[in-house]
Amino acid sequence: MPPAPLPTQLDQLCAQLGTLCDTVSTALRRASVALLENRERLATQVICDYRGVQAMRAEAEELATDALLFHQPVAGDLRAVISSIRAAGDIERMGVLARHVAEVAACGRGLPVEVRADLERMGRLAVGLGLKAADVVRTRNVLLAAELEADDDAMDELHRRMFSVLLAPGWSHGVPAAVDVTLLARYYERFADHAVTVAHAIVYAVTGHEPGAIPI
Amino acid sequence: MPPAPLPTQLDQLCAQLGTLCDTVSTALRRASVALLENRERLATQVICDYRGVQAMRAEAEELATDALLFHQPVAGDLRAVISSIRAAGDIERMGVLARHVAEVAACGRGLPVEVRADLERMGRLAVGLGLKAADVVRTRNVLLAAELEADDDAMDELHRRMFSVLLAPGWSHGVPAAVDVTLLARYYERFADHAVTVAHAIVYAVTGHEPGAIPI
């Protein structure tokens, strides 16, 4: 069978990356539910599902390799393939971070009441960023990519607030809970950051410039 | 001027990635010295030097793009270019983690005595892993890549031990120091992990298999 034409292969590649991005966002949503509602079985399921993410990333890289091998793309098409390889790595990493949240949830230690609401917000923001990044990947909409920056600023603000709660003299939950919260906050913040990087990779693919170098 | 032949471009790409890997390892070594010896000016310098890492990564990606554009490589050569794009992302991330260690050092809060020795060991191991990864990138030595796994196991062991110290009832340094140590331990562990991923990318480039799928 002859290889599919380049535009078809590029569409398949975008679709695969979009699905991968949806999958890791759903994993983070489920991990967050497991964390907030102490559902250890759900947490274990998210941990197990991670293998599927690895397989999907490998598939995306195979599509990218085929596009390079069969069509020797140039200019914008070449940028699109290179950006996909970069983005696939970031999206897999988002999957690892979702698994890390699930791993904390699986320990079933529960969350101090002062940080529950903010962690829930961080989870919602991160999942939202992941789903927006999926849309950017699928639609190559550069303007939507700019929207992610504002959400990421909100995430950074929540991250800072979390530390001020942790480090306040009134913190009464001891070091173990502080360690859990420190890591959870970092997982959410990193997930959001990778989502923004994925969107940036698409902006680069479409425009040929890294965001920040062009006014979007 | 005609483009350089493919083998020359691939050599340049390996050299560039090797230099990048050396640079981020040196950055982590200096950040660790700044942390252990409370040298805030050195920490600030590491933070500033990070811009150079970003520029070097962009250069590596340009070399990879040129190789694809001018030579349409296939088989092992194509794998080498794709692996380089993956590895460049991981090495830049190692640079970010070195900067994070420097950021903690720049705060000048000092380290609790119980964790100094282990953090120093983690730093040494991480720098060593970074330099070994640089050698793997330059020499494409698959057997050396396997050596990194053992060092990474030692790092994981130190990481676990650090948490047992933090969570022991005898911890007397309060939550702020615990938060610092939690993050520092994670930065070192992640740096080491990325170094292993870089070596894996090279194994994939040379053998066509992900490590673990082949007995090395």
Structural description of this entry:
The structure is a homodimer. Helix content of chain A is about 85%, strand content about 0%. The first copy, chain A, has helices at about 5-35, 40-70, 75-105, 115-140, 140-165, 175-205. The longest helix of chain A is centred in the last third of the chain and has 34 residues, at about 175-205. Chain A is mainly α and about 220 residues long. The first copy, chain A, is built from six helices and no strands. Chain A is elongated, with a radius of gyration of 19 Å.
Quick overview of this protein structure:
2 copies of one chain form a homodimer. Chain A is an all-alpha fold and 216 residues long.
